[in-house]
Amino acid sequence: MAGRRLEALTLTDAERSELTALASRPRTAQALAQRARIILACAEGRENKVVSSELGVHAMTVGKWRRRFLAERVDGLRDEPRPGAPRTVEDARIEAVITRTLESQPDDATHWSSRGMARDSGLSVSTVQRIWRAFGLKPHRQETFKLSTDPDFVAKVRDVVGLYLSPPEHAVVLSVDEKSQIQALDRSQTVFPMRPGQAERRSHDYVRHGTTSLFAALDVATGQVIGKCYPRHRAEEFRRFLDEIEAAVPGGQEVHLIWDNYATHKTATIRNWLAKRPRWHVHLTPTSSSWLNQVERFFALLTERQIRRGVHRSADELEAAINAFLDQHNANPRPFKWVKSADDILAAIERFCTYNTSPT
Any bridge partners for residue 214, and if so which? Predict the structure, then answer.
């Protein structure tokens, strides 16, 4: 049965100009900017599903704002007043606080505090805090990011993700890397265990008893991990670890290895070892893209459950704890489920770059 026919959405020159101005705001009122982008896309005659895919929103969201615009025009895109006591702070003052928070900084600091903004705006500290909470602003917080500059980034993403989502038949796909310089740490004073109403307590300082490096190969299909600890992480140790993998993989299977371009992986010793084994195929992750290597997720589990809070009085004790974790993991392995396609990943990165590099 044919779907309901969409009502035509046309814009006047004034509406198009106002919507374009709202959509191009680089930092402030992003909810309103997103709605403006939805209407501009709909005005070009595109269906809701097409617009939702292009802008990364749900089709129902597109439909909601299309209907609201048809009923109330541009005013319908703005948030409706909420029930409760009438506000005592005008919209213009609220917008001024938001704009100043996002697009300026105080003379004596790198970011605004609620008290500093209160002094600057003439509002109370609690009012500034309420405005920030309402718009999800947290000037005291900061996050980090790293974009790959690999010229072959797109090709490598498609190659690696293709192995995750559609692995070749009669082959094993292994995600390989090393967790180097794992420290065997003991606390300088007694650790006090958790009690009702009190978390575990430990001294902030520690005594170091050496290090070890774990080489690991995660079978992405089964979750099994081949792991081996070595005192160092040179090409010599990596070549010996490849021997461990070869001994563990049946001879009739092709072997697809996913690893990064770390110096240990591309020495003449490793290249010669691989050249003698035509069933082995190497797939490189892009630079600065460790998130694409599934074995990193296993390393995160190891760190969280064994290393971070572990007490180890020697490198041998640390290696024994790591090997015990490997044995327990392999006794009941579960593969990590990869759900994002290469197109999804590349589209997300494009949206990130587009949003964060918009002109101010």
Answer: 179, 229
